[in-house]
Amino acid sequence: MPFFTREIPLLRQLGEVRIGKKLRELYLDAQQHRPTIEIEENGSWLDIHFDVSGIAESEIDAVLRSLLQADRFYTTENGQVLSLETEAFQEASAALKKITDSLCISVRYVTSSVEPRIVFARRTS
Predict the structure, then answer these.
(1) Is residue 59 within 8 Å of residue 73, measured between CB atoms?
(2) Structure confidence at residue 39 as a pLDDT band (50, 70, 90)
(3) Where are the beta strands (DSSP E) in 10-44?
(4) What is the phi/psi pair of residue 18, to 5°?
(5) Contact 63/57 with Cβ under 8 angstroms?
(6) Distance, C-alpha 80 to centroid of its chain
(7) Mean model confidence pLDDT for the chain
């Protein structure tokens, strides 16, 4: 939503900008919702954990999918909007791309009756 990330800051340079409570609540503050990537190696296993502070664990795979698809924002189940254009999310995206490229793995999205999952699988060329 470029309006929140681009236009409002420009308008604030010109004067005071007031945003109603309902609209303010719709847009999630990127500073409070930062992505983290944890990589843990245990023998021949590599565990990659992606998280976003303040986002329900049930939605993390969907946020990751949106990030890997280079979406500009993610809309939560309750209708709030999280910008994926922030520096923190772009760094996380670059790190994940570097991991998948260096390990020669691809990302697949698996939808089951329980919940969608992201699967990293070794590429076969």
Answers:
(1) no
(2) confident
(3) 35-42
(4) -110, 135
(5) no
(6) 13
(7) 80
